[in-house]
Amino acid sequence: MRDYIKRLLIAVIMALCVSLLFLGGKHSEAAGIKEHKEMNDHWIWPADGVISDTYGTRHGQHKGIDIAGKLDTPVLAVDDGVIVKSYYSNTYGNVVFMKHPSNFVSVYAHLNKRTVSVGQTIKQGDVIGNMGRTGQATGTHLHFETHQLEWRYDKKYAMDPEKLLGKADVGESVQGGIASAGDNVLVVSSHPQTDEGTSESNKEKYIVNQGDTLFSIALQKNVSVDRIKAINNLTSDLIKPNQILTVP
């Protein structure tokens, strides 16, 4: 009788151990799913480059942010989504529109080329095109917009992308594919650009006036045209009124 009770106790203990291992595995799996979901709640910067213009400039007409960079820099999807438009327009140039599960629409404009098609399902970080200067663009850059619910021609639902990506001033560099957790803000690492040893404190923003040229601005600021072009990643001498330049 005593041996029977001993065997019964051993069986109960073994059953408890197996149950604890099973529950522990389930808990780890659930924690992993939760962590993956939380990571997917954060957007990433769409490309490597330097912020050359921000939301609301040009008398409120600029409904996105500009990231200047090198020709054919990969442009990444800021989050999972579906391609709802992909075409060429006279203003946006090569442009891609993506609808996200959060009901935001992201817009990627002035691309040198598009590598996705309408209806395609995209994962966060996938390459959707390459940076360019197609359409009405000054210099090679990505024009990036975000809209709530839908994109409309009048841009009624446009919102500042920095509310989703994190704050980055003109002249700051950002890194595509990088995101960090923030409290209700999808913050991405950004750091000041220190081009050719010029500190951020020695730079200022200059809004291009009607009739300005790079030569006249360079003369006014006592700096070379090539220096201004290098800081702003410009590939030509063409500038336009209300464009924001970073100058030493």
Give the termini separation: 93 Å
How many helices? Answer: 4
Total strands: 14
Q: Structural class of the helix and strand makeup?
A: alpha+beta
Overall pLDDT confidence: 78
Unreliable stretches: 22-40, 180-201
Overall helicity = 10-25%
Q: What Rg is obtained from the alpha carbons, in whole angstroms? A: 25 Å
Tertiary shape: elongated
Helix-strand sequence: HEEEEEEEEEEHEEEHHE
- Share in β-strands: 25-35%
Largest sheet: 12 strands, antiparallel
Description:
With 248 residues, the chain is an alpha+beta fold. It is 23% helix and 28% strand. The chain has four helices and 14 strands. The chain has helices at residues 2-40, 162-165, 214-221, 225-231, and strands at 49-53, 65-68, 74-76, 81-89, 93-99, 104-114, 121-122, 127-131, 141-148, 158-159, 172-174, 190-192, 204-207, 244-247. The strands form two sheets. Strands 1, 2, 3, 4, 5, 6, 7, 8, 9, 10, 11 and 12 form a twelve-stranded antiparallel sheet that branches. The longest helix has 39 residues, at 2-40. It is elongated. Mean pLDDT is 78; it is low at 22-40 and 180-201.
